[in-house]
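Anyone? Bumping this.
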Amino acid sequence: MAKEFISDKKEQEIAQKKEYSLFGTFLSVLMLALFLILSWFGVYYLFIQRL
Amino acid sequence: MHLHRLEKVWLLIGIGTLVMFLTIVGISAFAQGHHPPSDLTTLDPQKVDTTEPFNQPGLKKIGDNEYELVIVSQAFAFMPNDIKIPEGAKVHIIVTSKDVVHGLEIVGTNVNMMVTPGHVNSLTHTFHKPGSYLIICNEYCGTGHQMMSTKIEVTKA
Amino acid sequence: MKNTALHPNDGKLALAHIAVGYIALFLGAIAGLLQAFVRSGTLELPAGIGYYQLLTAHGVLLALVFTTFFIIGFLYASMSRTTGDLTPFAKKSAWIGFWLMTIGTAITTVMILLNKATVLYTFYAPLKASPWFYIGLTLVVVGSWVSGAGMFSQYAVWKKKNEGKPSPLLSFMAVATMILWIIATLGVAVTVLFQFIPWSFGLVDKINVLLSRTLFWYFGHPLVYFWLLPAYMCWYVIIPKIIGGKIFSDSLARLAFVLFVLFSIPVGFHHQILESGITPFWKFLQIVLTFMVIVPSLMTAFALFATFEISGREKGASGLFGWVKKLPWTDVRFFAPFMGMLVFIPGGAGGIINASNQMNQVVHNTLWVTGHFHLTVATTVALTFFGISYWLVPHLTGRTLTPRLNKLGIIQTVFWCIGMFLMSGAMHTVGLFGAPRRTAYTTYGDHPQALEWMSYQTIMAVGGAILFVAILMILYIVINLAVAAPKGTEEFPVGEVHEDAEKTPLLLENWKIWIGLSVVLIVIAYTVPVIDIIENAPSSPGFKFW
C-alpha cells in the first residue's frame, strides 16, 4: 500500500480499515472452532454412552 | 503486542472453548468420580503368583450383583479365561502383569487401562447390556500380542 | 534479500540431510505398505519377517529418521539463507552431527533387520532389545545436539554483528525449534543412557518401568512439536512469499514459537492418562498445560487465514471469501502445504479429544490414535516437507521445478490426500469401535466384535496402497529435481513482513527468560510425580518376546 500518498489522517484510517477487513478470516476460524466442538462432543457422547 | 480486534475475539472464543472442555472433563473426573484409571498400588512383579489377590485370579461375588474380577496378564494370555456375569453386574476389575507392559481393553466399553509390571491398575464398570464382550490386550507385548484375548459373557438376568 | 543460491558447501550439507531423509522415507514406506496388507489379512509375510519387526522399522525410519534429517537439513538451509554463509564452526558441527546421526541410524536399522530390536519405536521397557539398538538411537540424538550447537553459534555470530536488531524470522524459528528439541531430548537421553543401556548390557538386572515411560513421554510429546514447528516455519514465512503476500505479523509468529517452547514439554502425562502410579491430580495438571499448547495453534490458524485474505484483497478480491480464488492453486509449492494445513484441522481436533483426560479411555491404544498421527505427522507435516522439497531441492542443486514436475506434484498431493482419507478415516472409525493399534491380523477366534472391524481394515489397506503410489511419485519428483531437471535458479522464497505490522519487540528474543520459564514449568509439572516414581515404582527384569 502506498501509505506515503495519504496525507489526511482520516483517509489513512479508512485505508487501513479497508485493508484489515478480516471477516473472511474470522468466519473461517469460527468454522474451525465449530468442527473442534462437534467432534469433541461426539466422542464425549460416546464416553457417556459407554459409562 | 498489537492484536487485530477480530483476532482478540477469536482467541477469546478459542480459549473459551478449551476452558469449557477442561471444565466438563474436570467436573466429571473430580466431582463425579470418573477419573481415568490411576491405581497407586504396587507389588513385586516377580511374585505375582504369591501376592494377594493375584494368587487367586477370578471372579468373586462381593455384594448384590457386584463382583470383583482379579485378572493376571502375561504374554500372551489373560487369567482367568471366559468369565460369566449376569446383566447389570457392577464389576471392579483389578489387574496386573507378570512380565511386560500390557493393555486391558473391553471392546465397546470405557474399560481401557495400561497394565504395567510392578503396578496394579483398576476400573469399575457396570455391564448394562447382555452379550459377549471381547477383552483384548491393546499394548504391544511380543509376537503373540494379537492372540492375547479373552471374553466376558454377560447373561440375561 | 539476496536470492542467489546458497553457498555450495551449505547447499551440499542441506542436501546430504535431505537425501538420507528420503532414503528413510522409502524404506519406511515399504514397511508401511506390507503392514497394511498383513493387517487386512491379504498377505502373509515370507522368510520369517515379523509384522512387529516391520512396524518397528516403519516407526523408527519415518517418525525418527525421515523427520529429523529433513528438519535439520531445512533448518540449516534456512539459517544459511537468512543469516548468511555458515561459519566454519557451524559447518563443522553440522557435518559431525550428520555423520553421528547417519551411523546411529545405520546401527539401529541393522539391529531391527536382524530381529534383535522388535520393540517398536517407543521401545517400552521391560521389552529388552540389543544394547546396540539403544546405542544407535543415542548417536542419532547426540548427533542432533552437535548440529544444534552449530545453529546456535551461527545465530550468536549474527546477533553480535547486528546488535539491537531482531534476528531474521526464519533463523529465530530454527533456533526456537532446536531449543525445544534439546530440552525435550534430555529426557530420552537420561532414560537411554542411565536405564536402557546398562540394563541391556546386563550391568543391572532390573529397570524402573514407570520411570522409563515417564522420561520417554517427557520427550515424546515435544517430539511431535519438533516435527510441526518446521512446518509452521514454512506456513508463516515461506507460503506468504509464494502466494505473493506478506507475513501477517512478525511478532505474533515469534510469540507462537515462544509459547511452543514453553508449553510443549510439561505435558507428557497426557500419553500416560490410563497408567497406574501417577495420581489423577498430576495427570490433570499436565492436561491443563496440554490445552495451553493449543493456543499458539489457534493463533497460527488466524494468522494464516489472515495472510491469505489480506493478499487476496490486495489483488482485488471482494466479498467474504473472494480471496480464496486468488490463491495459487496450481502451484504445488503452495498446494501441498495448504492441504497439510487443512488436514491439521481434523488432526488437531483428534488431538484435543485424545488429551481430554478420561475421554482417552474411548480411544487409547486403538487405531483411532494411529489414524490421528497419520493426519498430523504423516499428512500435515509430510505434505509440508514435500512442499518445501519442490523448491529447496532444485534451489540446492541449481535446477528448476518444471511445469511437468509441478503438475505431477499436484497429482501426488491429491493421491496422498485420497489415500490418507481412506486409511486414516477407516482407522478413526474402527478405533472408536475398539480395534487396537499395533496389532497383527487377528479375528480373536472369529469374535463378532472383531469381525465388524474387518471391512475397515480392508479400506485401510486400499488407502495404504494409494499412499505407496504417492510415495513413489514424490521420490520420482525429488530424484528428478536433484539430478535431472533443467539447470537454472529456483527461488528460496522468504516472505517479508507486512508494512503495517508493528515493530518486533526484542523481548521475544530474550532466550534466557523463555528457557528459564520453560524449565520452571517442567519443574512444576514433573518434580513431585517423578520423585514419587523413583521412590515407589518397582523395577522389573527384562523380557524378549519376539
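Late reply, but here is one note on the structure posted above: The longest helix of chain A spans residues 23-49.
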